[in-house]
């Protein structure tokens, strides 16, 4: 495989730096948020006692709304950004890469909208 | 002791595909893999082609895959490997012949980070002075011999040959963190590009591969942190 060695687009890594830093910050936050979620939903309350009334009851409290929305948004961005990086690493044909990345962006956006509507409209 | 060598051969002028060839060699346990290769080349098959120069782990020309790991043939002892030794060319480079790989791209990336002292201040009367503490700051990365063991052990590089790779980052680190150097901006501009340090996924293969024991991933992370703190 020929290596293109003179194409270092100097200084175009600002986005990558932001993404790298975001992955670390969101990783730390997600650890706390996800563990908290796990404890509430599976340790303090058994799965068998959880029904829609329980979930709606929790979401009536703005604190839990913010909590769940943060968990959703960070997990979504963290996960889809990871996917973006994997596609960037392994898919080199530009048409394929553009297609897959676009699907990723659209899927992330849709999931974000649906999730946010559920949480805030509960 | 008798050692069975299994070597990945390739000669595009004779056969379009690489193939395996086996050799039985009589060596001392304290011999190096390089001695075995020499024995084969000198007494069994003169067409076996590989690079080596110093024979003492300092020129960096004989990195190859030995029993699945990147090592210098001149540093890998037979007694540490046992009686079956498998030798392949470095992964991720184009093979030219047998164990000789095309390192043009590797060195182009090395040149891209400007691996020489850059100064702008007026020259001092005598030499540029540096305190022992400042010298210690980049001591680890001065040890690099450009053998390419790290870069060719890196999955990010295998997946994307445009990635500048650990070796070039180590070389850049050696000057960026040198208190006498004033060319950090130019090097950081290259490392901050899309195919620069951000392609590193912290896999740590480079650390395991480096025959000089350099903390390669630490050097890469230090460059990332420097880029981050300059931004924040
Ligand atoms: S950092 Fe180590 S493995 Fe990489 S080129 Fe330098 S000496 Fe070889
Ligand atoms: S021959 Fe020089 S490093 Fe092995």
Question: Please, could you describe this protein's structure?
Answer:
In chain A, 78% of the residues lie in helices and 0% in strands. Chain A contains four helices and no strands. Mean pLDDT of chain A is 88; it is low at 1-6. Chain B is α+β, with helices and mostly antiparallel strands and 232 residues long. Chain B is 33% helix and 15% strand. Chain B contains nine helices and seven strands, in the order E-E-H-E-E-H-E-E-E-H-H-H-H-H-H-H. In chain B, the strands form two sheets. A five-stranded mixed beta sheet of chain B has the order 2-1-5-3-4, covered by helices on one side. A two-stranded antiparallel sheet of chain B has the order 6-7. In chain B, helix 6 (165-176) packs across helix 9 (216-231). The radius of gyration of chain B is 20 Å and the shape is elongated. The N and C termini of chain B lie far apart (60 Å). The model of chain B has no long low-confidence stretch (mean pLDDT 97). The A-B interface holds A 1, 3-14, 16-17, 19-21, 85, 89-90, 92 and B 94, 104-105, 108-109, 112, 156, 159-162, 164, 189-190, 192-199, 201, 224, 227-228, 231. The complex binds iron/sulfur cluster and FE2/S2 (inorganic) cluster. Residues 52-55, 57-62, 72, 74 of chain B line the site of FE2/S2 (inorganic) cluster.
């Amino acid at each position: 495989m020929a290596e293109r060695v003179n194409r270092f687009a100097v200084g175009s890594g600002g986005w990558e730096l932001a993404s790298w830093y975001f992955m670390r910050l969101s990783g730390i936050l997600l650890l706390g948020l996800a563990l908290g979620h796990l404890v509430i939903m599976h340790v303090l309350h058994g799965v068998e006692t959880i029904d829609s009334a329980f979930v709606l009851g929790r979401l009536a409290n703005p604190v839990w709304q913010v909590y769940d929305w943060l968990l959703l948004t960070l997990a979504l961005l963290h996960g889809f950004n990871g996917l973006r990086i994997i596609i960037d690493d392994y898919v080199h044909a530009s048409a394929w890469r553009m297609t897959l990345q676009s699907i990723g962006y659209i899927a992330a956006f849709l999931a974000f909208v649906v999730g946010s509507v559920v949480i805030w409209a509960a | 002791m008798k050692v069975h060598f299994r070597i990945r051969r390739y000669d595009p002028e004779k056969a379009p595909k690489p193939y395996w060839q086996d050799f039985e060699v009589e060596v001392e346990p304290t011999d190096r893999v390089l001695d075995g290769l020499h024995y084969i080349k000198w007494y069994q098959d003169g067409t076996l082609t590989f690079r080596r120069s110093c024979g003492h782990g300092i020129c960096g020309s004989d990195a190859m895959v030995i029993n699945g790991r990147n090592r210098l043939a001149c540093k890998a002892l037979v007694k540490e490997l046992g009686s079956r030794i498998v030798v392949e060319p470095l992964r991720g480079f184009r093979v030219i012949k047998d164990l000789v790989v095309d390192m043009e791209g590797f060195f182009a990336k090395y040149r891209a980070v400007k691996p020489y002292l850059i100064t702008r201040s007026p020259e001092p009367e005598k030499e540029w002075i540096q305190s022992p503490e400042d010298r210690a700051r980049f001591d680890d990365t001065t040890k690099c011999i450009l053998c390419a063991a790290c870069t060719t052990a890196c999955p990010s590089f295998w997946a994307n040959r445009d990635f500048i790779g650990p070796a070039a980052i180590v070389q850049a680190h050696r000057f960026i963190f040198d208190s006498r150097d004033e060319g950090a901006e130019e090097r950081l501009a290259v490392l901050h590009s899309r195919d620069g340090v951000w392609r590193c996924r912290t896999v740590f293969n480079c650390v395991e591969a480096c025959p000089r024991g350099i903390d390669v991933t630490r050097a890469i992370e230090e460059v990332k942190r420097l880029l981050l703190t300059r931004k924040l």
